[in-house]
Amino acid sequence: MRTAITERLGVEFPLFAFSHCRDVVAAVTNAGGFGVLGAIAYTPEQLDTELSWIDERVGGRPYGVDVLVPGKIDASALDRDARLADFIPERHRDFVTHLLSKYGVTGPVQPMGGSPDEFGRRVTAAGATGLIDVALKHPIGLIASALGPPPPEMVTGAREAGVPVAALVGTVEHARRQVAAGADLIVAQGTEAGGHTGEIATMVLVPQVVDAVAPLPVLAAGGIASGRQMAAAMALGAQGVWCGSVWLTTEEAETAPSVKRKMLTASSLDTVRSRSRTGKPARQLRSAWTDEWDSGQESPGPLPMPLQMLVAEGTMARVTAAAERGEPGALELANYFVGQVVGQMNQIKPAREVVYEMVSEFADAVERLARLSG
Amino acid sequence: MRTAITERLGVEFPLFAFSHCRDVVAAVTNAGGFGVLGAIAYTPEQLDTELSWIDERVGGRPYGVDVLVPGKIDASALDRDARLADFIPERHRDFVTHLLSKYGVTGPVQPMGGSPDEFGRRVTAAGATGLIDVALKHPIGLIASALGPPPPEMVTGAREAGVPVAALVGTVEHARRQVAAGADLIVAQGTEAGGHTGEIATMVLVPQVVDAVAPLPVLAAGGIASGRQMAAAMALGAQGVWCGSVWLTTEEAETAPSVKRKMLTASSLDTVRSRSRTGKPARQLRSAWTDEWDSGQESPGPLPMPLQMLVAEGTMARVTAAAERGEPGALELANYFVGQVVGQMNQIKPAREVVYEMVSEFADAVERLARLSG
């Protein structure tokens, strides 16, 4: 398959796999796709280890790294001397305690990557710098900003390293801002996507973004987990596709088994855009966690990013551990970021097989279209 | 172009135009598409007149009629002896009075099609019968149920007349129910669509519905207003597309000029799924009307269908008339059903030209896809 993207990045299929799991990144890259590791959960040292692990396995094939540097976050995160935990109000702490008790969750608090302050500040330009510096020391083929325009340091560093910069957008306005900030490649992500996502559907967003940023190439994200959907995205004008959800139920994925089981049985109606995990609207499995935060009578409402990340991250790690032990209340609360395509993720497969199936179904869809067009 | 749909319905392009305006229906049908007249606003006598007008202009080409028979409506509408107006609570009447006064809307109450009771009951199986009977006396090529499974009388009547029955759905479950009720053809409509719509995006919904109802053919709706989007929908497995919004800014459309102007300048972020016009979630232009009902402090909340239709229909007709006179408050309130594609509707064109552009862009998109597939 040949598009502007396959040429530029030296990849066989313009199929990008966003994952927090190095095994998925390596497997997709080795299958001819382009794996992109989400770096946010790692300290710079941990990221270095993960990327070295990938380097050893992909034989020089290009892969990417993704960081999160939103334009708007709580001011506390920008003050280097502040203890972020001090900015979490008592009633938010109390609500979490109440939830854990109401749902009978036991077990110890789980550690997050680095201290709470390190973790929370990783979504600031200053905090992301450590991750970006580490990433650019590896032979990566792409660095992506998942939320908000890439900070100047990131663009400068990437330029010097000869690495193209991708940026995710949910509106045409975002796309224009990202291009102005130096993005080389735009990922237009529709509302049906998992994780942080806007309100406009992929079908509507992609052609608008393609037209707005031409001649820069655009990848489509949101609602893409099959070859038919890949063909649809490229019919809209995208030069490739960026998929996240579909890898969560692959053999390689580090998704907790209890959450994987929820995903395998969920329908496309079982997701919700909720601020309850990060402070910004992110699509995820609907669960008692999202219900309690979004419409529970006692809910204090989610905090801004990154404070809600601090509230949620350790708690949900604890919930997941309890769910793995089969605690019923924890199973009700457990969830994870995933898009509406969860309704078609009904079987655990190797990531490699997902790539081959998508590419093969893509070819079939294009052939079928060409036939009926006559 | 040849698909199961073009063969079955004897139409040149599998491009369906849902419109409340007979001029659009005739223009699209004459251009090789398939016009479908929304019947809900008419009395049976009025519908008869409209369809005769179309018959005289389309030279025997097939067109369709669309009715609305939701599965769940307020019980009052099912009681033939009840006066529907009696079921509208005082505080809902007061809220409308308050809104009209707050926004300084002047001018007389506008008539709706038939009495309030006739109008409100047209969304029941019993009430729709009159419309269906009239429709089946004309040489129509399709009858569609826009919401809820087609009632048995509709299926029986259509079978006798040799007219295929289409049904709109927003989930796989709806699709299965519609097939069980006798639908010959499913329209899978994504959340980005205008009018009554669910939560699942077209990109995700269409392949699931195609697989669930095979070998029955599926049309895709929601987010489709260009040839690229048409190609995308058909890459997903649809045999054709069902478009509503794109006709609202055509030369032929009866859209009020003030609302047409709003649509021409609106972005894809300027729509909202709101119960404020019909009692069921329907995507429309966001305006002071939707804001006041959905989040205004004094809002009593919308009533169930069809009571909210009675509350909104006459009032919005009055608002639109006042907006046409340039009353600023009325301009703030004025809106209409439209999908997220409103962001790409930036120019008034003849409906015929929209058809030709879509078909031509469709061919280009398929050719481009075939090239990059190699």
Automatic annotation (TrEMBL), chains A, B:
<protein>
    <submittedName>
        <fullName>Monooxygenase</fullName>
    </submittedName>
</protein>
<dbReference type="InterPro" id="IPR004136">
    <property type="entry name" value="NMO"/>
</dbReference>
<keyword id="KW-0285">Flavoprotein</keyword>
<feature type="region of interest" description="Disordered">
    <location>
        <begin position="270"/>
        <end position="301"/>
    </location>
</feature>
<keyword id="KW-0288">FMN</keyword>
<keyword id="KW-0503">Monooxygenase</keyword>
<dbReference type="Pfam" id="PF03060">
    <property type="entry name" value="NMO"/>
</dbReference>
<dbReference type="InterPro" id="IPR013785">
    <property type="entry name" value="Aldolase_TIM"/>
</dbReference>
<dbReference type="GO" id="GO:0018580">
    <property type="term" value="F:nitronate monooxygenase activity"/>
</dbReference>
<keyword id="KW-0560">Oxidoreductase</keyword>
